Amino acid sequence: MDHPARLTLLCPEPVPAGVVDRAHQLLPDAGPPEHLHGPDVGGAPAWHAVRMAGTLPASGSSVSLTEVRRELHRAGVDVALARGPLATGPPGLLVMDVDSTLITAEVIELLAEHAGTAGRVAEVTERAMRGELDFAASLRDRVATLAGLPEHVADEVRERVRLTPGARELVAAVHAAGGRVGLVSGGFLEIVAPLAAELGIDHVQANTLEVEDGRLTGRTRGEVVDRSVKARRLREWAAADGVPLAATIAVGDGANDLEMLAAAGLGVAFCAKPVVQEQADATVSFPRLDAVGALAGLG
């Protein structure tokens, strides 16, 4: 039995015709391609997409998706192949990482600037995101460098946080299509909660900084949000919302997102570390979060 599938090519520039022809081999029965583009930025669309709908034989395509993805990625084109409910409709649930995904910065590095430990913390963060260090242990080490900072530092950092271009549009598009949105972060609820309220996010999970006598203790309270917690929250929120896992999308950039990306119907590596790009179902390799909407069948 053949299965419906939707193939999307994504690029900051117009997608070359030769690339479309090559990708078309994955879905040889696809109809005429649909051309989409992002919002106008500086007189030109922020991104371009080509979307094709067809069927995959039960035995799979005669062309390797992995090989095509690698080939086209080298040409600067991202490729996503959606199956099941995501091939024919929008996601019922979209779950995103926060630092370097929903927002442009790593919050712990902004906090560390106030402690004079930014360089050390940035190095550990980079290694953790590449999957070289255990995330929970690395978080404890990094948060320990913040001990003694006044509690109001979190407010100052919150003012410096900027949404990734297209973030607001992506959340609005999912909601307009009847879906729900969750944020699950290895960062801190003190920053994430106000962002979630501003965007109308439906589900939120993040770490909480411990405070005593108005100062950070250098510890967090409660369960550390690591890779396993992220995947668990995706499953729990999907169940609570009555959404099959096959109709969910997860988006993240670091190694601590890999379990969540694998659990979702479509896992998207967003401006991600190489290990994440290699293992995710799809990539968005340029910093426009609304481009994820093209992969999700929105717009």
UniProtKB/TrEMBL annotation:
* Catalytic reactions of this protein: O-phospho-L-serine + H2O = L-serine + phosphate; O-phospho-D-serine + H2O = D-serine + phosphate
| Pathway(s) this gene product operates in, as recorded in its UniProt entry | Amino-acid biosynthesis; L-serine biosynthesis; L-serine from 3-phospho-D-glycerate: step 3/3
**The family this protein is said to belong to:** Belongs to the HAD-like hydrolase superfamily. SerB family.
Under Pfam families, the record lists: HAD
Q: Which residues cross the membrane?
A: none
Q: Which cofactors, if any, are listed as required? A: Mg(2+)
Keywords on record: Amino-acid biosynthesis, Hydrolase, Magnesium, Metal-binding, Serine biosynthesis
The main enzyme category here is hydrolase
Protein's name according to its UniProt entry: phosphoserine phosphatase
What one GO molecular function would you report for this record?
hydrolase activity
Q: Which gene encodes it?
A: serB
Q: Which organism is it from?
A: Georgenia halotolerans
> InterPro entries of this UniProt entry?
HAD-like_SerB (IPR050582), HAD-like_sf (IPR036412), HAD_sf (IPR023214), PSP (IPR004469)
Enzyme Commission no:
3.1.3.3
Reading the lineage from the top rank, the first entry is Bacteria
